[in-house]
Write a structure and sequence with these properties.
There is one protein chain. This protein is 23% helix and 33% strand. The two termini are 33 Å apart. It contains four helices and eight strands. A hairpin with a 5-residue loop joins strand 6 and strand 7. With 133 residues, the protein is an alpha/beta fold. It has a four-stranded mixed sheet with strand order 1-4-3-2, covered by helices on one side. The chain has a four-stranded mixed sheet with strand order 5-8-7-6, with helices on one face. The model has no long low-confidence stretch (mean pLDDT 91).
């Protein structure tokens, strides 16, 4: 891992994240209403949203095995294995806005030991989103 020449062509960003969901319509509506984003692309199995230079692809869980085989697709109730973080200017103000949009917070705004203020919530697919300042 010390050979920097072999890693110099390694990607410097993530272009797409695919999230599996049991209810594509509900999750798509959540992203439109909570994040205020238009659908950039959609078909029968997916809906894509653009978060800056990264796209979030919501994919029906029934279409996911073809993407990850031979790995298995975990059920939604298997527990969280990651969280997605969005930077915001004011966590408290954003929490108020999210609550007004019908979002149920997993945790209220809190100051973390590593120097940031955060709060988090879950989308209809079970994915954890954190807002941080």
């Amino acid at each position: 891992m010390t050979d920097t020449a072999s890693t110099s062509s390694w990607p410097t960003g993530i272009s797409a994240i695919t999230l599996f969901t049991e209810d594509l319509d509900a999750t798509k509506l959540f992203y439109q209403e909570v994040f205020g984003l238009p659908v950039a692309f959609e078909n029968d199995n997916s809906a894509v949203f653009e978060f800056g230079n990264t796209v979030i692809n919501l994919l029906k869980v029934t279409a996911a095995p073809a993407l990850v085989a031979p790995a298995r697709v975990a059920p939604a109730d298997a527990g969280s294995r990651f969280q997605l973080t969005l930077p915001v200017d004011d966590v408290d103000a954003m929490c108020k806005e999210l609550t007004e949009r019908g979002v149920i917070l997993l945790n209220a705004p809190m100051d973390r030991p590593w120097g940031i203020r955060t709060a988090s919530f879950r989308d209809p697919g079970g994915h954890i989103w954190e807002i941080a300042q």
